[in-house]
Amino acid sequence: MPSENGPLHGIRVMEWALDSPGSYCGKLLADFGAEVIKIEEPGGDPIRRLGPFQGGSPHPERSAYFLFLNTNKLGITLDLRNATDRLLLDGILRDTDIFVTDCPLAKLRERNLEFRELTKINAQLIFTPITPFGLTGPYKDYKITDLIAFQMSGYGHASPGNVDDPDVERPLRGGGRQADFAAGTIAAVASLHALFMRDQTGRGQQVDVSRQQALAAYNVGLTSYSFTGQVQSRRRGGGSMLFLYPCADGWVCMVSLQEAQWRTFLEILGGPEWGLREEFQDREARTKNRELLEPLVFEATRKFTKEQLAQTCLARRVPCQPVNSVSDVVNSRQLAAREFFIRVQHPVMGEVTVPRNPLLFSASPLSIRRPAPLQGQHTAQVLKEKLGLSEQEVTKHRQNSGQSLSLKPNRTHAVQAAKNGQTKPALDGVRVADFSWVLAGPLCTRYLASLGAEVIKIVSQVRPDSLWSGPNNLYYSKKSISLNLSTPEGLDIARQVIAVSDILIENFGTGAMDRLGLTYENLKKINPGLIYVSSSGFGRTGPARTYVAYGMTIQAYSGLTHLTGYPGGPPRGVNAALSDPITGTTALLGILAALHHRRTTGEGQYIDLSMVEATVAHLAEPVLEYLVAGKSLASVGNDDPAMAPHGVYRCKDDDTWIAVAVGNDEEWEGLCRAMGNPSWSADPRFVHASGRHEHRQELDQLVDAWTKHGDRFELMHLLQRNGVPAGPMYNSRDAVEDPHLNERGLFVELDDPIVGRKKFIGVPWRLSPDNELNYRPAPAPGQDTEYIYKEVLGISDVNYQRLVEQKVAY
């Protein structure tokens, strides 16, 4: 019987969040069953003032976005500037495992909420501050927004790709709040990493999460400059393949990574004569000659409706999906079949529909146990349960500034300290049978390997992994075994590997593992504690479960492509993998939670993860706009509902840009100061935020006229010194050479057998005092075959040689 408790049942979390990253991190931990207590100061969480609002009018208890981010939490009100309330917080922290916050560094210092002070209260506390650029490095005191993090992650350079004129088609922000949700997810992952480290050492940990680094780590192509010495141009034909095609009633996304897929696509289009031309004979030629190809192929695709073309392609195993609007997504038959949108009963809003968590656990399923709290709803309950104080006693202590307040001693966690004071990576001793390929699964297992797990990557010359042909950020720190799964003996070896593993992860097409007999139901008989993760484009159930998919087609189906574009224009999308790293990191979070559950219960389980659902969860704001207000949003470029100026502005060098986001009057005054207080800055239209937003298009032109004479890095430093959030658009060279990212250790230098010593993307968070990680160069395919067959499985020398000769170890 599935447990009624989530996999993190028994973990106690405090959250003080003023923005989306901290709230989303707390939500994820709460979804997994942790007890999460949300602190709000008397003014309330600023997210309560963000829409969409039920009924249309702003109201602190009617924000659907706040509801989504805060389900399953208890809510208390404390004024942390008040001495008594700060003592009350200290008392609760004595019995807390994880304290999450996204408050600015200055506010944390002002409230004396820094790690060295918090460990005096609770030496085993895990403290997770999510800050703009991290706690160290030259940019540590700089401000950030989702727009700026997106540009400084390298994703802005690919949003959109394939532009005709880079000086006109400025970089875009991806739909939704991609950087904010990436930071929240990474913070939840890092907090669980710290939990495993604490179990080993007995020490509390500081978890340093940078909002910039979190999204930069998603961008698996970010270090391409390190590998090739080249920067891909944003111009059409600059190296990006064609993937968006117009239809009679919209657009589709078709990705043909294999030549056979392109040939089948041409057959579907009627076998046009131009398809035989030499300049279109392979993917490299088609990319080089895109300007010739586009009008020809577009004329052919416009004869189909988007659903007609997509379904025809899918029936012939060509990856293709319609570019869905938000309303298309919410009304998707696949998401309905998997009950992705669920109803929550709220005391003020009534029944509200929201997206559920994308991870489906078999043994400890996730659920919404309570709606988001009303402001201060659980203050009396929490203070009574945690500190034994009645409301009258709290009032009395506040009147005398807490001088007579006596706190309980803190709980001592049952942990086993490291022997001889030596620590190992957190997942040392965990073994992973890695059947994943392409991107999402390998990214997940690369993290597991970096955290110390022994990851055994299953490879075969019968079906090589297409991404293992050159250097990438997916395979380092792993071991690799050659295994031919098309033979009965090969399947027997696979079962032996699984029998001695803690985790199995696969992301093949639905039915592939069933045909091999490697289902969870079969494998749990030989390994009852196995955690079996199945990740696929659409999940393992529902009418779309068998659809072939790549990350770009998932981005189209989920609404991300539709939401990324210029106002009034066609969809442009994020021309880089984003759904894959979202899915890989979500899988990683699920695995760590499942490992914790197994350590406390001994129970393994099956986890079903859909790439579509993981991506839609990161688009909560526009999805809620439709669910609550009935508005299916279109692309808005770089516009923000409240901030202005808010955009990406040209700088003096070719295709260089800076993102600027002004959120209040103080930042507006800082911008004016940095510009030298031009006469137009005193225009009455720009005095108040509402006027600046109303006249934002004219304001954008004025800011653009100033930035186009400046160097983007000099402008960033000037604006940040004046308190204005700003940051350059990064290409791959900018990222690899960035002094801040390098000082913070985002990149790790490793020897690659093909290109030599290069920079790879490492773990994007830091633990202290214990940050032991496992970094080793990627193996050659099958490099560890003999070791695993003989040392791990106990196969004799004679039998191993026979398996090699019979092409089982192949």
Query: Count the strands?
Result: 24
Please state how the strands of the largest beta sheet are arranged side by side. Answer: 3-2-1-4-5-6-24
Total helical elements: 34
Strand content: 5-15%
The biggest sheet, with number of strands, parallel, antiparallel or mixed sense and barrel status, is: 7 strands, mixed
Helix content: 25-40%
Verbal overview:
The radius of gyration is 26 Å and the shape is globular. The mean pLDDT is 94. It is built from 34 helices and 24 strands. By secondary structure, the protein is α/β, with parallel strands linked by helices. The protein has a seven-stranded mixed sheet, with helices on both faces. A seven-stranded mixed sheet has the order 12-18-17-16-13-14-15, sandwiched between helices. It has a three-stranded antiparallel sheet with strand order 7-8-9, sandwiched between helices. Helix 1 (20-31) crosses helix 7 (178-201). Helices cover 38% and strands 15% of the residues.
